[in-house]
Amino acid sequence: MSDDNKPKLGMRAPLGLNKAVEVGKVKQSFSHGRTKQVVVEVKRARVLHRPGDPVPVETPPPAPVVEAPAPVTVAPPIAAPVAPAPVARAPEPAPAPTPAPAPVVAGPEPVAEASAPAAEPARAAPAPIMFRPVERAPAPKPPEPKVEAPASVAPPVAAPPAPRPVAATPAARPPVRPAARAPEPRRPAPVDLLTRQERQALLLRQAEEDRLRSAEEARIREEAARVGAAEVERLRLEEKRNAAEELATRPDPVASDTPQTLVELDEEEERLRVRALPGRKPELAAKPARLRVGDDRRQSGKLTVTKALDSDDSVRTRSLAALRRSREKERGRLGSQAKQVRDVTVPDRITVSELANRMAERTSNVVRLLARLGVPSAAVDEIDQDTAELVLTEFGHNIVRVSDSDVEIGMVGGVDVDDHLAERPPVVTIMGHVDHGKTSLLDALRGTNVVKGEAGGITQHIGAYQILTKDKHKITFLDTPGHEAFTAMRARGASVTDIVVLVVAWDDGIMPQTIEAIQHTKAAGVPMIVAINKMDKAGANAEKIRQALLQYDVQVESMGGEVQDVEVSATAKTGLDQLIDKIMLQSEILELKANPDRPAEGNVIEARLDKGKGPLATVLVRRGTLKTGDIFVMGSEWGKVRAMVDDKGASVKSALPSTPVEVLGLTGVPSAGDPVTVVESEARAREVAEYRAGVINAKRIEQEPANLETMFSVLRQAKAQVYPLVIKADTQGSAEAIAGAVNKISTDLIKAKVLLASVGGITESDVTLAKASGAPIIGFNVRANAKAREIAQRDGVALKYYDVIYDLIDDVKAAMAGQLGPELLENVVGRALVLEVFQAGKTGKAAGIRVTEGFIKKALRARVMRDDVIIYNGAIASLRRFKEDVAEVKSGFECGITIEGSSDVKPGDVIETFEVESRERTL
Ligand SMILES: Nc1nc2c(ncn2[C@@H]2O[C@H](COP(=O)(O)OP(=O)(O)OP(=O)(O)O)[C@@H](O)[C@H]2O)c(=O)[nH]1
């Protein structure tokens, strides 16, 4: 074996005994620059001879056969006209009546046909070029040309390198058709004369012909079926169109609601026509793709795998995906015709994109609509419910309003039916001006002495007590403070009460808080009983009080009105029974009833933070029964009743309507006046409390709308100094009252800023907060713990303790005034008129003046005024009279002066001298 023929890895030449196989290499190029070396072999056809035939001398294959690739393209045109020539000029007839090679089998048919008569089986023709990986075509080899044929006319050999039996060129197609089967009659050759191989080749050719024929017939059948189906559809549509036209001419109100227009019918017809095309996408089938000139893929006899599989006369069916697409499209069409109306749930605020999503509309459409409605918004912007409703209406949907506040639904129970109602004690609030004897009166009624225990002898908390009358009737009393700072407490007292007892000390008369109490009572719409107190005092005159009340629209019975009145003395304990009688009478008139057999509802009267017990709330039960273990919500706080204490300090398990109790078990200190509701579960309680806390927080951070008024007020406040302070009190009501009172002290020059007003002792965090702003800490009935005291001392934070609100307010006022500093007052001491002006020195000017008022003093400050406008403010540098320096010139005299730094004095100006007095400031 030569070196050339040595097998190499990857490109091993085929093994062989002789040179029957020509081996070469071909470089194949692929995409992305990849190449591959392929071994190519040219195999000579093996020629069989009948016994007796002379064995031809083996001729080596002509060189051009292997080398010439060009004939592939020139073969068809050349083969047809040229092929017969060799036949005509054949010098010797075919040695044997060899059956003509089937024209359809061997490559370009004309070539095959042409070469058929001149088939030269004895000639060893070069086999077609084949790549090794390709399976050799089993089809018969193309007939060999005669050796005499000119080399340039070598189409037979140059015919398709890999003969594809069915792949005919357009030019070659006609012979495939039945009409082109001309050579068939020549087929019946004497079979017995053929060799076995020839018979085999013949049979193969016949089988191939049959197969192609049946494929062609199937194609024709398919075409006919398609045309037929299209025709049927056309007829059906025509009928439908006629029917629609007929309906349209008929006045049918139902049909007229959704008339199918002719355009729609046309569309439907088109759609159905498309459907009639088997295996076609509607949009593609709409085009006459099948009939396109030059598109021979479907009309040719080419056999593809799909076609082979479909070669039965079955019509190609549509793919599932195509069906789905078509259904979706159909659904889309129907959807656009009948728009779906939706019930869209809209919360208080909703983003534009979320609204679009809930409507199943495009966000861009909603944005566009909003711009048109004059509410330009982006997709992420929030719009309110009303705007959302406008949008929904435009799109034809319905709004279902929901709100975060829906969590409150059910927090106030329904009205109780009469059968469940039971009598309840009246709730009576004692109101009146400070020191008119409210607490004393209550003490007298209860047989206690609360007054003695009060700091400064004044009430600073709302108190709730219950008494038992001689007739075993219960009355609940609420004691309110009389000091002006406790307005909110009085308002709360009036709002939760059934009856107000207005205490007026006859000797003091109608005072500001008396008037305020009248107003609160009227606002609450509750009946009033006037108790004229201190009737034990000498010279008592109740009549003047009755008359004085008239001007506040309070008409007592003796004055022809409906308001009951009673003369009492808290210290002498007189008139108390009458007062009780009148309360009971009023109570009967009111028919006070409540359902005790339901979850409790009520109000927080007062709340505080106890060092040992934690947050505590005094609750007045309005209806239902509050029991230990109940889960409740109090404003933005919630909890579970751990224990209850009545007004006498006794522990109780339940509290009936109109009963005041102190409740333990809260998570935080609620606000006085907050509603109390017992709920079914902790989860519900937490949910409601969280919602309410969120609302309070949102209100706190909510900014006031910007307008001119607020802008100016902000500017004014910006100029004013700020006095920050931290307030810690024993009860929530006290903290609120102190904060309110301190805020009232504020002036245009200084403004109190309450950083914190809460209940409980002073802690480290309070000190830290105060330090950050340089604020003092006000402790009302509370003290700082040891740690807080230590930090306060270290950081220089002022701790101020009070137990009387008057003292507290007075001190805060003084501190605020001190921060402002002393007040400076100007006192004008003299005025003078400028008569003449002289040059004095290089730059200065001297003025000859006449003193018109008071006196002019050298040491005093002076201002120059022209037409009542101050043009200069300074001091008198020199004062002379008759060329002599003088200290003072009195009214009516003339003198000369120079003013420091002023050279713009003119005759006619007025010179005013004044003193500045420093005075301690008061607020
Ligand atoms: N002489 C006389 N003094 C009375 C009477 N009632 C109250 N006082 C006195 O008036 C003062 C104030 O009494 P309080 O009961 O504290 O008055 P109040 O209205 O409760 O005061 P505040 O709670 O601070 O608003 C006390 O010194 C009482 O002794 C009365 O009927 N006769």
Automatic annotation (TrEMBL):
**What protein name applies here?**
Translation initiation factor IF-2
Q: Which gene encodes it?
A: infB
Q: Which NCBIfam families match?
A: IF-2 (TIGR00487), small_GTP (TIGR00231)
Q: By its UniProt entry, which PROSITE patterns does this protein fall under?
A: G_TR_2, IF2
Which segments does the entry list as coiled coil? 205-250
What exactly does this protein do?
Answer: One of the essential components for the initiation of protein synthesis. Protects formylmethionyl-tRNA from spontaneous hydrolysis and promotes its binding to the 30S ribosomal subunits. Also involved in the hydrolysis of GTP during the formation of the 70S ribosomal complex.
Q: Where is the composition biased (Pro residues)?
A: 92-102
Biased composition range(s): Low complexity: 103-128
Q: Which organism is this entry from?
A: Sandarakinorhabdus glacialis
Which segments show compositional bias classed as Basic and acidic residues?
Answer: 183-194
What are the protein's UniProt keywords?
A: Coiled coil, Cytoplasm, GTP-binding, Initiation factor, Nucleotide-binding, Protein biosynthesis
* Segments for region (Disordered): 89-194
Q: Mind telling me which PANTHER family this protein's record contains?
A: TR-TYPE G DOMAIN-CONTAINING PROTEIN (PTHR43381:SF5), TRANSLATION INITIATION FACTOR IF-2-RELATED (PTHR43381)
* Principal location listed in the UniProt entry: cytoplasm
Q: Which domain of life is it from?
A: Bacteria
Query: Pfam families given for it?
Result: EF-G_D2 (PF22042), GTP_EFTU (PF00009), IF-2 (PF11987), IF2_assoc (PF08364), IF2_N (PF04760)
Query: Which positions fall inside the Tr-type G domain?
Result: 423-591
Q: Entry's HAMAP family?
A: IF_2_B
Annotated GTP binding lies at: 432-439, 479-483, 533-536
GO molecular-function annotation terms?
GTP binding; GTPase activity; translation initiation factor activity
Q: Which family does it belong to?
A: Belongs to the TRAFAC class translation factor GTPase superfamily. Classic translation factor GTPase family. IF-2 subfamily.
Compartments where located = Cytoplasm
GO annotation, cellular component aspect: cytosol
